[in-house]
Automatic annotation (TrEMBL):
TM spans (from-to): 42-66
Originating organism: Candidatus Thermofonsia Clade 3 bacterium
Keywords: Membrane, Transmembrane, Transmembrane helix
Taxonomic lineage: Bacteria, Bacillati, Chloroflexota, Candidatus Thermofontia, Candidatus Thermofonsia Clade 3
Domain SH3b: 137-192
The protein's name: SH3b domain-containing protein
């Protein structure tokens, strides 16, 4: 800045005078030399890792804050129970055998009082036919008794010859018969015998 002294009107003393043209000129400096700063490239994964870590911490803190400040829920989920039922052993009842009931002699009608010599009357030498046993046959026994040994059953419609009798035993009248086919002799109850013509 240049200062020039001029006479002062009030006292004749010179005052400096500013030259505005020179003073308003732009300040000129020498151009600065660019500085060489060392540049280090930062891998992109480091800022990403830091960002994820900050977000995770923020979420954790927010969740902790919410969990601590909300009212506790008294909720209990129903639990499923499994009940195992084991079968109880039961006693095995062996099958019971049904007792065998031997066929019994058919019921016999009351003995009739007949005398020999009358027509249709049974006697020694008369031929008789077996009838009325219901298909079971007449019990042909060795003795005139229901407890005597049974020889066989004489079927209805067969003809035999009376060779002995009569004898009463056990409430029945018995006649001794002979089988003409083989000559077997045994006893039969009169109630199932009928004289042949």
């Amino acid at each position: 800045m240049s200062v020039q002294k001029t006479p002062d009107r009030r006292g004749g003393v010179d005052h400096p005078k500013i030259h505005w043209e020179e003073d308003l000129r732009p300040f000129r400096r020498l151009p600065r030399q660019p500085r060489d700063y060392p540049q280090q490239r930062v891998p992109a994964i480091i800022p990403m890792a830091i960002s994820f870590a900050l977000v995770g911490v923020a979420c954790f803190l927010a969740a902790s804050f919410v969990n601590q400040n909300r009212p506790a829920l008294n909720f209990s989920a129903p639990t499923a129970t499994i009940q195992v039922i084991f079968p109880t052993p039961t006693e095995e009842i062996p099958p019971t055998a049904t007792p065998y009931v031997a066929p019994t002699d058919p019921p016999t009608p009351e003995p009739t009082a007949l005398t020999e010599g009358q027509p249709g009357v049974i006697g020694v030498g008369v031929r008789v036919v077996i009838f009325g046993t219901g298909g079971n046959g007449l019990n042909f026994r060795r003795e005139p008794s229901i407890s005597a040994e049974k020889i066989r059953s004489l079927p209805d419609g067969t003809i035999y010859e009376v060779v002995g009798g009569p004898q009463e035993n056990g409430g029945f009248v018995w006649w001794q018969l002979r089988d003409p086919s083989d000559g077997t002799i045994g006893w039969g109850v009169q109630n199932y015998l009928r004289p042949t013509p």
